[in-house]
Design goal:
Chain lengths: ~150, ~150
């Protein structure tokens, strides 16, 4: 990721793209724990202690199921979907706010007919995400609503 | 401002309000250097190194003309207006991004017929804003486009 300062005004373009911001689709391989998701880094600056990123999943796509020490502050911008937060599943719509506390399993899923796009504020300095072990995944799936969410 | 952790999901309400988020209109007094502006703090958490705030000006309202060492990362969310950035005036619309570098004079103004609402990401630890001196204001007004902007 570049630490070049961004231009002072970057205009919004059709299809939730921004002038001067690279769109980075996540590369799907055999065991990729995500589907049809791309990232645009909107603010990453030496003088700002957080970054602001925009993530978008195509209809039916989902983010990685993960947890970490660092928090996320999320605002939905586009579409409809659900998020898993610990052992709760919640429907989300534009401009809803989601706080993801430290060490909380989380995943976002777009609805079948619509993309899901959201802003995510995160500390510039942060730890790497953890993926669930088999045992942790089994524990998550012991909650029927969570099992249904994870099954798509 | 409270450092209570926010609920994990806070839904978006009509008129750009959020569940559980206090709307704080700035109190206008005789010499108030702003007009018709209110703030909602969307994320302020011990574990996040930035805050995310939503500012909204009613039609014809404006923010304080100020500068400071800390940066702002801004995304317009609602309405139309203009921003002053140093000696440039730019029109803004929803989802445009504005980067306000250190020590840059800046002010936002809503258009006459519409409110202007924007997200502002800022470091939790930051210096206090400075207001322009008479001489600095005169220097800003020496640029005709800036003078027109400041006159409303």
């Amino acid at each position: 990721m570049s630490d070049e300062p961004s231009a002072q005004l970057r205009t919004f373009l059709p299809e939730f793209r921004w002038e001067g911001v690279e769109n980075r689709p996540y590369k799907e391989e055999g065991s990729a724990p995500f589907r049809a998701i791309a990232r645009q880094v909107l603010f990453t600056e030496e003088g700002l202690d957080c970054e602001l990123r925009y993530f978008e999943m195509a209809a039916g796509g989902y983010s990685t199921l993960e947890r970490h020490e660092h928090m996320h502050g999320v605002m939905i911008l586009r579409g409809r979907g659900h998020c898993l937060l610990g052992d709760e599943v919640r429907a989300v719509k534009p401009f809803d706010l989601v706080t993801i506390p430290a060490w909380t399993w989380h995943q976002f899923r777009a609805s079948e007919g619509e993309p899901l796009g959201f802003l995510c504020m995160v500390n510039r300095e942060r730890d790497r995400p953890q993926l669930p072990s088999e045992a942790e995944l089994a524990a998550l799936k012991s909650v029927p609503e969570v099992a249904a969410f994870l099954a798509g």
